[in-house]
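User: Can you write out an input/output pair for a complex, sequences first and structure second?

Assistant: Here is one pair. Inputs:
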Amino acid sequence: MKYVDEFRNGEIARAVAAGIASLTDADRHYKIMEVCGGHTHTIYRHGIKDLLPDQVELVHGPGCPVCVLPMGRVDEGIVIAERPEVIFTCFGDMMRVPGSRGNLLEVKAEGADIRMVYSPLDALRIARENPDREVVFYAIGFETTAPSTALTLQRAKKEGIENFSVFCNHVTIVPPVRALLDSPDLRLDAFIGPGHVSTVIGCRPYEFMPEDYGKPCVVAGFEPLDLLQSILMLMRQLDEERCEVENQYGRVVLWEGNLQALKSLAEVFELRPYFEWRGLGFIAQSALKLSAAYADFDAELRYSTPGVRVADPKACQCGEVLKGVLKPPECKVFGTACTPERPLGALMVSSEGACAAYYNFGRKSFEKVEIGSKG
Amino acid sequence: MSEREQRALDTLEQNRRRPPKFTAPRIDMSHGAGGKATHKLIEGLLLPALENPALAPLSDAALIPFGDAHLALTTDSFVVRPLVFPGGSIGELAVNGTVNDLAVSGATPLGLSAALIIEEGLDTEVLTHEVETMARSAERAGVSISTGDTKVVERGKGDGLYVVTTGVGVADPELNLSSAAVRPGDKILCSGTLGDHGAAILIARGDLELEAEVLSDTRPLTPLAVALKDSAGQGLRFMRDPTRGGVGTVLNELARDSGYGIALWEDTLPIRDVVHGACEILGIDPLYVANEGKLLAVVAPEAADIALEALRRVEGGEEAEIIGEIREEPERMVLMHTRFGGARMIDMLVGDPLPRIC
């Protein structure tokens, strides 16, 4: 298929992989974190780890926005969804994220009017079509999806649609990465920066990674060749002892980002003083809420939610797994209190989370696989 | 490997072998999606309550001893929105679905029953169209609808029309089709392109505002099953029609039930460009998308090429491919060798194939 197959070409992949191998020091172990959940998906889907030398390990980062949502925020969404006047709208993969007493799919089965949408604009359309109901959009995602929420709110305000509100759970990418980098026991050598987030925020926000922490970062696209090339670029930096932010995803990402989207974000949102991340605890200024100008559309103000924090069990060690200190099965609750059916930590929520993958496939989830012949 | 890791792996292995328990307090949509939740419902709730030797293998049709022969018995309910979609309609699906469950069990269909659950207010014209379609589909499949039932439910209690069909057939005494019959080295054949039906339905619903010409693949599989039997004979080990849950789910069931591993090659999977494109946009995987006119077969290695040629000569089998093989390792898992040059574990579908945000 055009515009897809070109980026999945096995022959070019072998050539890039050979380049990576030639830059690999046999006595060194390289740990590279891909920050974004979309990259993790590509790595699994195309088997990228099998093309890398044994010395190069990919560590899956915190960048899956549904996975990092703490139980308390899911519970609050459920309280709103259960109100009889509410049509509750959310993205598909949000439906399965567990709160302390179940997920949205289960609440839907109990009778709540919960509808899956592909865009916040669809939620606004539902509000327009149902003037006697209250439509709430459960907003999640990094800076990637936040502009579409901002645009929707700008439109709602302009059209004077009063039966629409947003339960805002947008998070920002830089603070959790900084929190990881601040850990004294961090064992990572370099970072693959999130491509889609960067189409909005650009590359400049990552400059602190080389400057303050001495870690190279390459912003990468989402096709397998994008990722492989970004690993090659990082290996080159490490080999040449360079340390900087580079942009592999130049066909989409501008260094300065999308100024119009950033302007919308600045108008509609403001930073929360702190926000809780599943398995990672509270991180300062790591999430967005609606600005004063849009307070009328803020579901958190419109509905009284319990605001109760459901404590992450103390035994949950997502942070250690993310930092590369522990392997999934070395976590105290792995496979017992924390399973894909009842996940406690972020890494067990999505099937591609490091823990869920390990739970399903054991060592096969990270060991290199020998490719047999077709015969 | 650390002691802790080994212990965790042992616990996982024990859990995996334990029969599943159904613990959900009520049924949600994931229990109908054909993946892990559906399995839990069937194996954790239905199977223990109904336990008997004909049901236990959970195959597409149950084989019931009758004199010297075996009767094949199967039933299926059809709920689809919209009722008419590009390439077919609910009536055609309902006949082909049950005929196909008999066909992949190696049985010759004897007769079908059809129950219609009709919502108050359904246009007679729509009902007439579906019943005529059912008659035509039955004729095409060489079977008749010999008995039936009608019920009308109040407005709002059904999506216009639900259809339930049951089929009876006679199993071929020469064949021994089961997951226990497959052996390492056996080849996996797929009779054509993946995901056409599910993609056609998703697009026809119009929620996505995608415009693409994708037709459902609904068709009777009897001619394809016969071609396989005639060409591979005793070398034919296993057949399934990968409907709900798709090829990924059926192969996971086979891996689990046979105890062997399954290797797939991505570059041999037949997938239409337009289906591939729609799946890329929606963030779903064609391996888990439903088919209504495709057959998966496991064939002994020496019979594989002849069987493939035989499939390709039959209408609806022109694009058949050998897509993988049975392996000793990795036990009870499905592994796909990607076009990119790596390997990917193919899990059973978890819940509905929901679009991803990232």
